[in-house]
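S.,

Sequence below, as promised.
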Amino acid sequence: MGKVKPRLIGDTEVEEKQKKEQKARAAEKKMLKNKEIKKDENMIDVGVDRDQPSIEKKQKKVVKKIEVAFVKTTASRGKKYIEAKNMVDKNKFYTLSEAIQLLKKMKLTKFDQSVELHFVVDETGLKGEVELPFSTGKVVRVKVVDDSVLIDLEKGKIEFDVLVTHPSFMPKLAKFAKVLGPKGLMPNPKAGTVSTKPEEVVKKFEKGMLRWKTEAKFPLVHQMIGKISAEEKNLIANAEKFIEAVKKSHIQKAYIKTTMSPGIKLEIKS
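The prediction came back faster than expected:
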């Protein structure tokens, strides 16, 4: 129970005086409480735009995210991963040749791992296409829209990586835009997947044409460029071609890794 404050009942003048004193104390407490709340709000607001965080804050978030992707706690990793991590000088920026040679020395798994590039870029919304000089080793499933594809879409079946269409099918595809769009599969003239000669576009993508873009909310780009079993010179050529497509002027940080390896920082000279 709280404190019980005695009040003199019967003496009207004294009673009125007590009431006024209580009201004054209550008003003073309320004023002090409001000042504290205002003080806390000012401390939060100083130098921070809640709706649009500073560039520095955004960069910290991006760097933190990519570090989490590559720098896991050793307690949750196996012996081979720890050995591989110890092979990497975390303070060094490696050339492509040095990094790929190092990745080939890491014996982490028995399967043929993918080699991946990961970039921190200067803005979101970057995207493009690139045809790598050598195969990535990944089979790209390309389909041309026809009645059978439309039937599959009605059933919710998506069994392709790239969807190409003749302009005449675009009205029929419109109702699937909400499903295909977020997955990056909706045919688009800018992406070259809407054509009056779709068969020729299919050949282009089957040869190794890649479409790349940043993540939706973060300025990060991820791309597989081959298998670790590929020749070093082929992996270097694919990496250089992809870096050229993204443009060095956009790349702030670059990493290369295999499916299961730690990341290796790359030297990217303008």
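Confidence is low (pLDDT under 50) at residues 41-51.

Coffee later?
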